[in-house]
Amino acid sequence: MERRTIFAGWALPAAFVLPQLLLTIFFFLWPAGEAIYGSLTRQDAFGIKTQFVGFENFVDLFTDPLYVESAGRTVLFCAAVSFLSMGVALLLAVFADREIAGRGFYRTMLIWPYAVAPAVAAVVWLLLLHPQIGMIAHGLKAVGVDWDYKINGGQALLVVVLASAWKQVSYNFIFFLAGLQSIPRSVIEAARMDGARGWRRFRTILFPLLAPTTFFLLVVNLVYSAFDTFGTIQALTQGGPGKSTETLMVKVYRDGLVNQDLGGSSAQSVVLMLGIVALTVLQFRFVGRRNSS
Amino acid sequence: MNGRTDWTAHIVLGLGVLLFALPLWLVLVASTQDPAMIGRGELSLWPGGGFSVYATVLREGSPGVAPVWHLLLVSFGMAVGIAVGKILISVLSAYAIAFFRFPCRMLCFWTIFFTLMLPVEVRIIPTYAVMAGFGLINTFTGLTLPLIASATATLLFRQTFLAVPDELVEAARMDGAGPLRFLRDILLPVSAANVAALFVILFVYGWNQYLWPLLVATDSRLDTIVIGIVKMIGTGDTSIEWNRVMATAVLAMLPPVAVVVLMQHWFVKGLTEGDK
Prior knowledge:
Chain A is built from 13 helices and two strands, in the order αββαααααααααααα.
């Protein structure tokens, strides 16, 4: 889409677009270029000579069992967080969409957690699940569950999934509710005339009509759980015990900053970038189709 | 539902409210209690011991971490700086792209658009290297500037600007308004709701940053409150003053939650209509 009426001249618009463009070049394009360059080169042990090695860093990456394991773990983690937070949010949104007393109150009380920082959500869950101070942890021990996520990797993964999903429910709730509200009442009325109610109405009418929202949220949630949960994981488990909660994001951080392996971490950054590009393209193709239909 | 109360809805939504309110209540309660008791897991469900811990953390903080008033100050500066900065440069660039024709206009647009695919997390290491080259490590500028460039805000404003009717532009021009006056007197007032919504979203975004401040500011004088809390917990094994951690968590949640709740109406509209 373009405007028909425009202003003349190009000095003013050039000056207006310049700040945004400079920031983009210095903090986005240049670093991205460096990452690509770094991923194709390798430094010797003393950091003096840099050699072009083609795709060797990538070959190393994908033949490294630790990286492949971490990638698999990340997929599992992202799927669990997205499924859990979207499922709970959809359930709440369906009921918040009904004409009931106090819906404004319910809405506010379900929206505020949007503002909680991922790392602060971790503190909240420490108080519930920490083996020494956690309330739920004590309850679990009382009924004979051997609960200690500082030692048990599976439990640790569960803890970071719960804390990450909890924080994201609000965001999904806002979008699901908006999606439900944009469905014409006449459609819902017509369904009721046909006798579709409860679960059947949801499955055959509401859920299919929510498909664009669901797809949009799925992409957003995958990106959230892959990247924004770094703070949550760092505060709860630092990727441990062992490597049981080390997602790709935590691994980039550990390899690049803690272990100073720049070539390897550049290659990891490039892989993550490609992942995001793929998700974004997918999303825009889908949204584009939604608009034209 | 025939005038009868919809109990199922109230029960489901009530449980949903508790899912978020109960943990928050526990954090609040824990902040008022004896750290040794919390450490043993003997948390009572009712506040005890008073709220003096808040004055203490605000003034002193915890060992190895700046006082909380200072953490709050840095977080506030960072959140407002990012929100205002993003809105400012996005309004200007969106205005230029929507209302003018200049060389390389579409190249500029696509360059900005492309950054949508490069969140700060995937380019941390190389961005850090570039920042070090500029000498911006451990500076407030380094903390905020790289997070200010944003494609989402630009795209949102461009969309709003494209929807402004041609008649309005014509009328303004007839009255002798130049491009600057048109922007100030007509376009900005028309987009006020968008600006408000974006401010909430970007304030929360800036306040909640963790990874970038962790990298770029190792000097404890630039610690944000989110960084401060994670530092206080450490590995979670040594004797931690849990009441102080929880009080700091409450203080860390208060400003962004207040902004979201108070500006809820604009924020929800802006979020869902902007499609991101």
